[in-house]
């Protein structure tokens, strides 16, 4: 008999209901703000959680704690073989409070999405975020160390064709690198009917060269777009993006101000790395080994206890830019978005 669900509340009164699952640490890009060009040591296959293990963790979060959202991340999730099979399994989960399917989303770089978009949609994936930091081919190659902008743009079109709505495009904005394309992305979004999400550059780059003067504040992004396409703010919940819609009705944008306007007070997320480490914050410096529970004969009660115990240590916020900020030892690709 399944135990009744009990909302998972952290020490600061925030109800945790969103699970981010990294399905691989591997990626077919080498983005400068995420991974080094060479020298990455990939996890051996046997250390990565199986689909069955991922499903078990997700099921416990949904059935025991009432989670209503799951996002698949990487690395690049589409390099994981048979990904639609995992999506189909996760799509069977139902939110205890409503009986409705969980909100199942994925973040991808889009390079192989042209081959998978329709299969993922049929498997039950609800939403897609596609990362694309520049619309200029030479700059794209410099930022990702891959000459594949055309494939990413094809992936965006494939997502639209498969019926994902809205399709969100994630842009990590870096001052002096791609800050001159903010309005270009707004125009791109309006023309295609996709939603740009401008994300402030965070200190998770593998080369550890991040500095505050590279951060393009989201207020500047909004001001630049508003000067060309007038905007108005949209009320939103605990999601990380502050949303703005165009006054002429031609869609909306989002900005994720992780550095200049942290939204830690509304955080409802936890993350599982590809090898099964639970992180209660993107910038956490401690982890809980769920793989050890899964492979050590632990029961669902044991798994739920490990998850709730880690959330009980969740801190108030990440403190980026403050003297006592501690940079995580992992880069973004090793954590999962």
Descriptive report:
The chain is 29% helix and 18% strand. With 337 residues, the protein is α/β, with parallel strands linked by helices. It has a single domain, classed as TIM Barrel (Alpha-Beta Barrel). α3 (113-123) links the parallel β5 and β6. α1 (51-65) runs parallel beside α2. The protein starts with 7 loop residues before the first strand and ends with a helix. The model is unreliable at 321-325 (pLDDT under 50).
* Strand neighbour order, sheet with most strands: 9-10-11-8-7-6-5-4-3-12-13-14
- Quickly name the level 1 CATH class: Alpha Beta
Q: How many domains, as an integer?
A: 1
First and last CA, distance: 34 Å
Overall morphology: globular
- Can you count the helices? 10
Rg: 19 Å
Note poorly predicted spans: 321-325
What order do the SSEs take from the amino end to the carboxyl end, as H and E?
EEEHEHEHEHHEHEHEEEEEEHHH
**Topology-level CATH name:** TIM Barrel
Structural class: alpha/beta
The proportion of residues in beta strands is 15-25%
Largest sheet: number of strands, sense, barrel closure = 12 strands, mixed
Helix content: 25-40%
Number of E strands: 14
CATH superfamily: Aldolase class I
How does CATH name the architecture? Alpha-Beta Barrel
Mean pLDDT: 90
Concise structural overview:
Helix content is 29%, strand content 18%. The protein is α/β, with parallel strands linked by helices and 337 residues long. It has one domain: TIM Barrel (Alpha-Beta Barrel).
From the structure above, extract its key features:
single chain, about 325 residues, alpha/beta, TIM Barrel, 12-stranded mixed sheet, two-stranded antiparallel sheet, 10 helices, 14 strands
């Amino acid at each position: 008999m399944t135990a009744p669900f009990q909302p998972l509340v952290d020490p600061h009164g925030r109800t945790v209901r969103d699970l981010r699952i990294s399905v691989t640490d591997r990626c077919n890009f080498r983005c400068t703000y995420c991974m080094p060009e060479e020298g990455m040591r990939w996890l051996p296959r046997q250390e990565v959680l199986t689909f069955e293990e991922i499903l078990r963790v997700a099921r416990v979060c949904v059935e025991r704690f009432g989670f209503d959202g799951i996002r698949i991340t990487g690395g690049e999730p589409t390099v994981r073989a048979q990904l639609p099979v995992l999506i189909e399994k996760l799509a069977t989960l139902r939110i205890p409070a409503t009986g409705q399917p969980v909100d199942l989303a994925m973040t991808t770089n889009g390079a192989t999405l042209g081959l998978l978009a329709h299969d993922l949609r049929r498997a039950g994936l609800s939403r897609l975020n596609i990362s694309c930091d520049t619309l200029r081919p030479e700059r794209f190659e410099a930022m990702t160390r891959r000459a594949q902008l055309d494939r990413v743009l094809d992936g965006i079109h494939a997502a639209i064709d498969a019926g994902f709505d809205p399709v969100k495009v994630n842009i990590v904005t870096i001052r002096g690198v791609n800050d001159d394309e903010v309005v270009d992305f707004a125009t791109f979004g309006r023309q295609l009917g996709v939603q740009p999400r401008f994300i402030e550059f965070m200190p998770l780059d593998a080369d550890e060269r991040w500095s505050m003067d590279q951060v393009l504040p989201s207020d500047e992004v909004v001001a630049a777009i508003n000067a060309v396409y007038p905007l108005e703010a949209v009320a939103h919940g605990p999601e990380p993006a502050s949303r703005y819609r165009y006054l002429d009705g031609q869609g909306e944008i989002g900005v994720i101000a992780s550095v200049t306007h942290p939204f830690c007070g509304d955080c409802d997320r936890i993350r599982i790395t590809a090898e099964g480490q639970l992180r209660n914050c993107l910038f956490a410096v401690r982890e809980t080994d769920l793989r050890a529970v899964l492979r050590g004969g632990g029961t669902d009660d044991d798994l739920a206890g490990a998850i709730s115990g880690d959330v009980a240590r969740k801190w108030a916020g990440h403190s980026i830019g403050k003297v006592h900020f501690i940079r995580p030892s992992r880069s973004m690709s090793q954590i999962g978005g």
